[in-house]
Amino acid sequence: MMLHVSWWKTTLIWFVVLLSVLLAAPNLLGERYLSSLPTWWAHRKIELGLDLRGGSHLLLKIERDDVEKDRLEAIVGDIGTRLRIVNVAYSGLTGTGRKIQLRINDPAQVQAAVTALRPLTTGSDKPAITLSQGDAGALTLDITDADIDSHVSAAVARSIRVIRNRIAQLGVGEPLIRSQGRDRIIVQVPDLADPQRLKNLLGQPAQLSFRLVDQSMTVQNAMDGQPPAGTDVMFSEDDPPVGYLVQRQPILSNVDFADAVAVVNSQNNGGTTSVKLTQEAAHRFAQATASNLGRVIVVVLDDQVISAAALKTVIATGEVDVPGDFTAQGAQDLAVMIKSGPLPATLTTVEERTIQPGLGGETARYGIIACIAAAVFVAALMIGFYRLLGIAATIALIINIIMVLAIMGLLGIALTLPGVAAIVLIIGIGLDALVLIYERVREEEKKTHLLVDALRHGFNRAAATVADANLTVLIVAAILFYASSGSVRGFAATLIIGVFTTFFTSCFVTRSLIDMWISHRKPRTLLVGVRSGIFDNANIRFMGIRRYTFTVSAALSVATLVAFATIGMHLGIDFAGGSIIEVRAKQGLADPANIQSRLQDIVPGDVRVERIADRLGAVIRVHAQEGGENAEQSAVTLVREELGKDYDFSRVEVVGPAVSGEITTTASLAVLAALIAILVYIWLRFEWQFAVGAIIATLHDVILTLGLFVLTGMEFNMTSIAAILTIVGYSLNDTVVVYDRMRENLRRYSQMPLPILIDASINQTLSRTILTSATTLLALLALYIFGGEVIRAFTFVLLFGVAVGTFSSIYIAAPVLILFKLRPDKFQTGGESSGPAAGDIQSGKPAV
User: Fold this and answer.
1) Cβ(311)–Cβ(293) under 8 Å?
2) How far is residue 374 from each of residues 268, 366, 377, 419, measured CA to CA in Å?
3) Are 412 and 47 in contact (CB under 8 A)?
């Protein structure tokens, strides 16, 4: 007596399981054992995300204005050179923005000038400039968008190389550096204890040059009048700054430096930077110093004078000390920047998320404890209700988690804190599938009284429902993955993997386990010890109170929308911009009042300080600053300078206005896309009334969840969007199961009054609904209790959403079918059951 699972299918199933165990094994081994494994195997270990490991996430933006300025200067110089080569006299060659103007002195030479400039305007599908002629020899040239775009892309590629070189010399973990969009670069550096140093290193183009001071006139006269040709006025970083009139053409620049070394003075913690010149530059610099003895030479870093000194001797060694008052770290950083080369344009930090490694490790421990607790809770519940079948479910659950870890390691997906929450949800979703299968098997056994037939039909018929229910979660998770980044994307990726592994373990692994048990023990019945049938004889008239539940739900939804429009939500920095800074006192307890008073006079805008639960730290929220991304970074710098002596900075999150606006738009589109995708999917799988019912129920869940944010004042951020979309997926999971049973009954009892048929369908799936909700709520409760402070608000929203989603599947999604007059005859496929079967279904007993 077996389930007729062919030997090759069984072999394949357990081969996949064994392979998953092998791939996941490195996650359970220490570094000593990992070093003895083959490299390809050891590298399958899952990397922890920055929120669990600690480190810095920076989103950098190439300043397009810098690229446009450089292109303008280059093309203006190129135009002058080309015209001089062909002996065309011109005047008034000027450029502003992306427009260049000049006049050809002799109108007869205009055509010769146009011919000389033709290589700039032709020669490719996307010319660098467009040229137009005016009166009296006037020419106007416009730099094209395509040219700027191509140079921005080139600047991004070059910047990535420079960033990689600079970070490599910090001696930190393996960084992730990649482009995002047209003009942005993501930099993630794990295990980084000093994010401010990283920002300093990446925020400076590091254009270094040695220039001679022009002493033909004073700086003030040069500023008041016309400075000599080929000179610029530059200022030092002193307070007050000192001005210098310097020659525009440098004696030495970055291309002349072959190497750079920092020399540290251990006595005063100072340092100097020594640069080694190329052979050609060393010879040229020796000649320049010999012919300019006694003159002042300045060192210019990014258009700012960092040091000045008189040339007293000829420098012919090919090594030059950069004069200046540097700290040891300052000298080291300057050497790093010189060795890595200059950035092609300024990089502005538009988003920062940093967590100290120690705090990340603590968060990881909380996450592991929460996962173990969730697994224990739901396993106890399943074994308590299903006995031996519950043990099979627990084994399948363990295999499910192992497979998730194996695939994440195989694909290189980092585990984030929201990803831990996704694993807990996968536990709930996996057990939901098993409960669905087990309850269907119980119904089949009551019908056929043959265990093997009951198992075979139960598994086969439940598989389609499991696929339908999990597909809704997959759609939502895929949209969330596309719309998010960072730790939230890790949540979506983990959930996507979990959908596939859940289907595999529920429908194949569990079936194989039960097949082995049956072939070994040869039981006569499956129901011995199973205690999940407590609702088998339920005959609850859910639709009898539909008008009341609908009215109350509608009233709550309207009240929520009114509160949302009048009171609003407490938007987090993801949507409003600004900064969140978590500090911990170096000694004693944190003093929020003292922090507030110290910051309110030096940081522009609204600053709020809240003490965290352990009283050792506080969370500082800085309102979005006026002045763009640089202003946000300046505010954080002010906080660091004011509190750095008394507090350690354990977490810093900064979101500039550009990113917050994009996140708002993307999040809104993600929710809208999820609703549209669900509408289309349910419509295709069922009927339009089912689709409308699912959307109305989903909107009900979303609106009430938003009301929770309004009522509690919780911060609404991108993880909140993740929670809402997860609630949407879970609620639809439940709704699809109920709808599937309704559709099945509609095919059999087309003449039965729709309210009675709906009540019977809900009663038939009530055991599954309650057990699923209980297991999921237990898993989330474990995450809420043991997951730590960082994930608690996210988990609380999920707990609320699961409860609301269970309610809406029964009291919102089902009554809508009556409201829109669903016609049962559309499902009639031939032959209507009557008599006893009809009586059975009216009494709420399974009739399938």
Assistant:
1) yes
2) 55, 12, 5, 14
3) yes
> Is the pLDDT assigned to residue 453 strictly greater than 80?
no
Question: Under 8 Å CB-to-CB from 835, ≥6 apart: which residues?
Answer: none
Q: How far apart are CA 750 and CA 743, in angstroms?
A: 10
3-state secondary structure of 759: helix
Length of the chain: 848
* C-alpha to C-alpha distance for 41 and 27, rounded to whole angstroms: 11
Q: Say how far apart CA 156 and CA 170 lie, in whole Å.
A: 21
The answer, yes or no, to whether residue 120 has pLDDT greater than 90, is: no
CB 788 within 8 A of CB 366: yes
Query: Read out DSSP for 310-347?
Result: E--S---SSEEEEEEEEEHHHHHHHHHHHHH---SS-E
Q: What is the pLDDT of residue 395?
A: 92
160: closest CA among 345, 367, 410?
A: 345
**Backbone Cα Rg of the chain:** 35
What CA–CA distance (Å, rounded) separates 690 from 685? 9
260 and 338 Cβ atoms separated by less than 8 Å? yes
Q: Tokens standing for 244?
A: 């210098």
> For residue 751, is pLDDT > 80?
no
- Residue 18's pLDDT is 92
pLDDT of residue 500: 93
Percentage of the chain beyond pLDDT 90 is: 9
DSSP 47: P
Cα 487 to Cα 188: distance, rounded to the nearest angstrom:
12
Of the CA atoms within 13 Å of residue 609, those in its CB half-sphere come to: 19
Helices 388-411/510-521 angle, 10° precision: 140
What is the distance between the alpha carbons of residues 325 and 331, in angstroms, rounded to a whole number?
9
Contact between residue 739 and residue 694 where contact means Cβ atoms under 8 Å apart:
yes
* pLDDT tens digits for range 247-283: 988 999 988 998 888 887 777 777 888 889 999 999 9
> Between the CA of residue 736 and those of 508, 697, 842, what are the distances in Å?
21, 11, 21
The tokens for 740 are 């599937």
Give the dihedral of Cα atoms 381, 382, 383, 384; nearest 10 deg.
50
Rounded mean pLDDT of 553-559?
A: 91
User: Cα–Cα distance between 544 and 758 in angstroms, integer?
Assistant: 11
What's the mean per-residue pLDDT of the chain? 83
Whether 193 contacts 356, CB under 8 Å = yes
| Residue among 302, 359, 336, 343 at smallest CA distance from 198 | 336
Alpha helices in 505-624 (DSSP H): 510-521, 546-566, 573-576, 592-599
Which residue bears the tokens 């990726």?
Answer: 493
What is the rounded CA–CA span in Å between residue 470 and residue 732?
9
- Does the pTM surpass 0.90? The reply is no
Mode of pairing for the β-strands spanning 570-571 and 715-716: parallel
Question: 410 near 551, Cβ under 8 Å?
Answer: no
Distances (CA, A) of 694 to 699, 701, 810: 9, 11, 11
Beta carbons of 386 and 484 less than 8 angstroms apart: no
> Which pLDDT band, with edges at 50, 70 and 90, does 708 fall under?
very high
Enter the tokens of residue 527: 């129901």
The amino acid sitting at 402 is I
